């Protein structure tokens, strides 16, 4: 009979605070030099969760000394109108980073909207250019949540080379890029999703399990390899992740809480990349 245990927590809140502390100092140095980093947020419609997320990002930006420019557009706008707004922001020299809050209303071509963001201002890492840079290991901005996940793993000294990483989820801004980033770090990566047959047979093989499927408590403890590192990148109504924390915490070796795990890291990377974008754009002037 094995003795029960609880996994150690990957504390994203604490790690993110250290990142933001440096971001704040870097932003202050830029501002002292005459350039205040500016993040433009674009919100289409008034989805309550999206409104909350945008407001939170604006507040975090302000605390870090990063200026905010918020654009609110009605839910019934056309793709062309949204593309035009993003193009205008891309061409504005006072805007250094652009965040389009997603998802957008179903009638809008989200990919066309993302592609209207200039690569040098794509601080959320949502364009095809950014994805290709991540996949090929070229310079560019990473998708904010995958970037935050990798930083968290590094902070806790999780060895990636030679480990089997299983990613459950295939979205173009989370599941797919985090797999690419893990592959670039010499992990062996398996992609799964909600329609994978016998999903648990794959997740039980994972040394590192990333849950990014968008279904509450979708992965339970019995589907987790003992001692695995479990990254819950899901965020569902009621502060529930994609992993059933109560059962998973007794099987995993390391696990992210929801909230307080991946979420703070996403915002920290977003702010860090905004300041980096401002620095690069200042250097090109």
From TrEMBL:
What Pfam families would the database entry show? THF_DHG_CYH, THF_DHG_CYH_C
HAMAP family named among the record's database cross-references = THF_DHG_CYH (MF_01576)
> Which protein family is it in?
Belongs to the tetrahydrofolate dehydrogenase/cyclohydrolase family.
Provide the function of this protein: Catalyzes the oxidation of 5,10-methylenetetrahydrofolate to 5,10-methenyltetrahydrofolate and then the hydrolysis of 5,10-methenyltetrahydrofolate to 10-formyltetrahydrofolate.
* Reactions this protein catalyses: (6R)-5,10-methenyltetrahydrofolate + H2O = (6R)-10-formyltetrahydrofolate + H(+); (6R)-5,10-methylene-5,6,7,8-tetrahydrofolate + NADP(+) = (6R)-5,10-methenyltetrahydrofolate + NADPH
The pathway to which it is assigned is:
One-carbon metabolism; tetrahydrofolate interconversion
Gene symbol here is folD
Q: Which InterPro entries match?
A: Aminoacid_DH-like_N_sf, NAD(P)-bd_dom_sf, THF_DH/CycHdrlase, THF_DH/CycHdrlase_cat_dom, THF_DH/CycHdrlase_CS, THF_DH/CycHdrlase_NAD-bd_dom
Taxon lineage = Bacteria, Bacillati, Actinomycetota, Actinomycetes, Catenulisporales
Subunit info here reads: Homodimer.
Q: What is this protein called?
A: Bifunctional protein FolD
Q: Does the keyword Amino-acid biosynthesis apply?
A: yes
Indicate which residues the UniProt annotation says bind NADP(+): 169-171
What region holds the Tetrahydrofolate dehydrogenase/cyclohydrolase catalytic domain?
Answer: 10-124
Q: Where is the Tetrahydrofolate dehydrogenase/cyclohydrolase NAD(P)-binding domain?
A: 143-281
Name the EC number(s).
1.5.1.5, 3.5.4.9
Sorted alphabetically, the keyword list is:
Amino-acid biosynthesis, Histidine biosynthesis, Hydrolase, Methionine biosynthesis, Multifunctional enzyme, NADP, One-carbon metabolism, Oxidoreductase, Purine biosynthesis
NADP as a keyword of this entry, yes or no, is yes
């Amino acid at each position: 009979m094995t003795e029960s245990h609880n996994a150690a927590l990957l504390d994203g809140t604490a790690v993110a605070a250290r990142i933001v502390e440096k971001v704040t100092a870097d932003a202050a140095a830029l501002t002292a030099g005459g350039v205040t980093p500016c993040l433009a947020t674009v919100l289409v419609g008034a989805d309550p969760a999206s409104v909350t997320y945008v407001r939170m990002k604006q507040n975090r930006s302000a605390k870090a000394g990063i200026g905010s420019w918020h654009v609110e557009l009605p839910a019934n706008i056309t793709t062309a109108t949204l593309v035009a707004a993003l193009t205008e922001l891309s061409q504005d020299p006072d805007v250094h980073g652009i965040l389009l809050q997603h998802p957008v209303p179903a009638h809008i071509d989200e990919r066309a909207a993302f592609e209207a963001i200039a690569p040098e201002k794509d601080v959320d890492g949502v364009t095809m250019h950014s994805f290709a840079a991540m996949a090929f290991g070229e310079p560019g901005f990473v998708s904010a949540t995958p970037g935050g996940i990798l930083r968290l793993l590094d902070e806790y000294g999780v060895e990636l080379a030679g480990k089997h990483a299983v990613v459950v989820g295939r979205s173009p801004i989370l599941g797919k890029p985090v797999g690419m980033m893990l592959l670039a770090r010499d992990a062996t990566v398996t992609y799964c999703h909600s329609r994978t047959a016998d999903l648990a047979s794959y997740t039980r093989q994972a040394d590192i399990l990333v849950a990014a499927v968008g279904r509450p408590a979708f992965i339970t403890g019995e589907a987790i390899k003992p001692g695995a590192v479990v990254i819950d990148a899901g965020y569902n109504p009621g502060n529930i992740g994609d992993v059933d924390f109560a059962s998973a915490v007794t099987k995993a070796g390391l696990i992210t809480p929801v909230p307080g795990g991946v979420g703070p890291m996403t915002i920290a990377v977003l702010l860090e990349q905004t300041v980096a974008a401002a620095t690069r754009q200042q250097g090109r002037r």
